[in-house]
Amino acid sequence: MTLTVLKPGPLTTVQDLGRDGYAALGVPHGGACDPLSLRLANLVAGNDEGAAGLEITLGGLALRFDAKTTFAWAGATMQVTLDGAMLHPAHRYTAGKGAVLRFGFAERGARAYLALAGGIAVPPILGSRSTGLLAGMGGFHGRALRRDDVVECGRAPRQVPGVAVAQPERGEHLRVLPGPDWSLLGHAAQRQLLSTPWQVGLASNRMGMRLTGAQLECDASDSLDSHAVMPGCVQLPPSGEPIVLLADAQTTGGYLRPLVVIRADLWRAGQFKPGDTLRFAEVDSDAALAALAAQRDWLARVSRSLAWEAR
Length: 311
Hints:
Cyclophilin, hydrolase, CT_A_B, Cyclophilin-like_dom_sf, Allophanate hydrolase
């Protein structure tokens, strides 16, 4: 089965859950900026939750199905239509040959995920089908989709349409833990970092969200020796305006790391777009582990429920 891109939107890429175990070689983890929405779309479509799908940044994608296809989408709030009929997120649908799927521009959130039954059939590189834009690696020829691209999908068992799941709420807070360099901030800067309503800047991308709203002062030099970083690290560059690292974050850096977004909220970080406002909410390690366990339990319940529906 194939689909043809009619309009690619600002940035549409093939993504799965990323590449584990290659950071020591300088390879970013990559994968979906909102892994929870990709997992959900895949489960609803009848796939393994780690199958490759399309990450649609800010909307604007239009494509044509070249054969009968089962699919689902999840993530940002957008007007999504199939041959003009409105579609809901986290619902399973079937498109006929020649049907056209259109994503309007994001009203709330930044990224939507389209899962096709059988997944996107691009060759895996280092164990992942994700697109690494900076390296031109993986995904669809290592790049974002363009008009007239023909994307191949895998084969999947017949799925019955009509399945639906409620999406989780994003909210306006990111829960954080103190980072390795938290103590290098003065008390005033610590309070300001946690109390400021930060605005997501225009220079944000899949590597990180650049925040504006205050200029923090720290009690350390402008930079440190190079050290490991990963998605979720909050860096503080010399400008005093934080950067929240996202899926395509580099593997090393030299800026202060005052905070780390908890793993259960990484999907939320991937759904803020330029102009949005966010706040940091400090939690302890017990709360962070409990949030991750609750998220995993929710996904497991969704998976069991969908498996029951398929019987």
